Structure formats: C-alpha cells, structure tokens
Amino acid sequence: MRKILLVLTAVLFAAGSATAASLPFSTVFKGEDKFQRLVREAQANNWTALPIGDRTAAVGRSLVGTRYVNYTLEIDDRIEAPSVNFNGLDCWTFFEAALAFARMIDEPQSNWTPQRMLHYIEQDRYRGGRCTSDYLSRLHYLEDWLYDNDRRGLVNDLTANLGGVRVPHAAREMTVMWKSYRYLRNNPALLGPLGRMEAQVTSRGLRQIPKSRVAAIEPKLQNGDIIGIVSRDGRRFATSHVGLALRDNNGTLRFMHASSPRNAGKVVVDSRLTEYLHRYKGHSGIVVARPTR
Q: Checking DSSP bridges between strand 283-291 and strand 206-210, what pairing results, if any?
C-alpha cells in the first residue's frame, strides 16, 4: 500500500510541476532567496516538530515586514499557473504561502524546494487541487476556497460550531471590478462564465461569527487558524480580507495579516482580533478555518 501511495504522490507532483512549468520559473517563483532563508530558519528552529497550526503561525511570523503588493497572482495574460512571490504579499498570498510552506516542511528535507512549494500552492489555490491553466480553475473567493478545501479535508470550517449565523450573501466583486484584473482585461469573454461561478458561490450562502461575539470565542481559536473577515456589501455580505490567528506570549489572540498600503503596507502582527474588527465599521464578523494537515 505504501508503494502505491508513493507512486500516486509522484504522479500528482509531476502533474502539478507540468502546470507550473507552462510559464518560466522566474515568472512563477519570485524571492527564492527569501524562501531559502525560511528553509534555514525552519531547520534551525525545528519547525517540523510543531503541529500544523503552530507551524503555519511560525512561518507567518517570519514573513512579518514583507511589503504588501496587490495582484501578484495576475502573472500572465493567457496562462493561469501556480505561483509564489516572497518579495511582496497581499492578504491572500500571505496566509496561503505560510500554510503551503508549513505543509511542505512536513516532508523530508530533500523535498523542501520551490517546486514542492508550488505543488502545495496548487493543492490549496485551485478547485479540486488542480490547476488546468484555466483562470476559473482558481478559487477566487475565500468562501469558495473554504468550501472546496473543507470538502477535501484540508481544513475544517469551524464557523458554524463557533456560533456562526447565516447572513445574506453576494459574491460579485470580480465581475463588478473586472478591469482591475489583468487576465480578465485580456480575456473579457470569461465574464459570462465568471458570473455563473459567482452565482454558484453566492447560492451556497454564508455564515459569519458576528464581531460582537468574537471576544467570547477567542479562547477557542488556535495559532494558525485562518481568519476571514466578513464585510457588508450593500444589503449583503461577503469576505473582504483574510489573515492568521496568533496567540502572543501574554495569551492574547492577535490578527496577523498583510495590511494594505492604506494602513501598514506590509505583513504585521496586529492588535487583538476583536479590537481589530471594531476598528473598522464595515467589518461585520469572521469565518474561521483550521488546517488539518
């Protein structure tokens, strides 16, 4: 059985690598010096001995100070491929890179490579864990990412169990702001299929833990939990930001995230989670996912 699993793993890795290789390595992987620094830090501090949540949080802390850069996933006009950019992160690529690196270092050190990192990015970022070179194979909405990754057993959606309540939902940002996306500007024929995908995401509904209740559930949150921020969009709600839970040395549950240029403009360990939420009137609550492996 072990031999069969090893063969299957090799096949899946080869498929992921082939997708990434459809664009030059210099396009799909940036900041290799920073990646190697993380590798050395993981070795020196024995991060592999940590549970997945603590491991993810440790990687996240090492990325603090990385500048915020938006639209780093828009790397080509025609081809969609897994990519990593350690030179600049946005809120999504920050949590995604921390989680992918944490998963990668659970393997033998000979596998701690950019190519293997791209494999884990593909596993998380794309529907069913597979990039087809199609832009819409990417999970563009956090709600969709959470649904797909929970269904595949990569994370547990804890929102309902932590008191999440249903709210009116709308996933529509990309069709409304399509000119902001390089790929959509060059492929406007995708707007129809994109709209249908958004309708499907919207139809699943959305639960949030209202920000008035977050303080009460903070003791139940753990290092490395994925915290999605829910905001009001007119009369409806949608996820608008994402980061990681981090419990500091005093036991305070803080929000670690890539903060936009309007604020810090870099990855930061921010204030207590509930305080962060109340800082912004538009933030209505959170969703919570816990990595399983």
A: antiparallel
Residue 178 shares a structural domain with residue 241: yes
Most distant CA pair in the chain: distance in Å? 54
Do residues 68 and 195 both lie within one domain? no
Please tell me the predicted confidence (pLDDT) of residue 234: 81
Region for residue 209 given its phi and psi (left: phi exceeds 0; alpha: psi -120 to 50; beta: otherwise): beta
Q: What single letter denotes the amino acid at residue 10?
A: A
Ranking 13-27, 188-202, 275-289 by mean pLDDT, the lowest is: 13-27
Domain boundary among 90, 119, 145: 145
For the cut 70, the answer to whether the pLDDT of residue 55 exceeds it is: yes
CATH code at position 70: 1.10.3670.10
Q: What CATH number does residue 171 fall under? A: 2.30.260.10
Q: Are residues 81 and 188 in the same domain?
A: no
Which of the pair, 2 or 39, is modelled with greater confidence?
Answer: 39
Nearest to 46 by CA among 58, 35, 57: 58
Q: How far apart are CA 106 and CA 127, in angstroms?
A: 23
Choosing from 117, 145, 173, the residue where a domain stops is: 145
Can you tell me the distance from the alpha carbon of 207 to that of 289, in angstroms, rounded to the nearest whole number? 12
Range of the domain at 200: 154-291
C-alpha–C-alpha distance, residues 219 and 109, integer Å: 34
User: Measured between alpha carbons, how far is 18 from 178 in angstroms, rounded to an integer?
Assistant: 29
Kindly state whether residues 38 and 96 are assigned to the same domain.
Answer: yes
The token pair that represents 86 in the structure block:
């350690």
Contact 238, 176 (CB under 8 A): no
Residue 95 contacts residue 244 (beta carbons within 8 Å): yes
Give per-residue pLDDT as tens, 68-109.
999 999 999 999 999 999 999 999 999 999 999 999 999 999
Alpha helices in 21-113 (DSSP H): 25-28, 32-45, 52-62, 91-104
Number of structural domains in the chain: 2
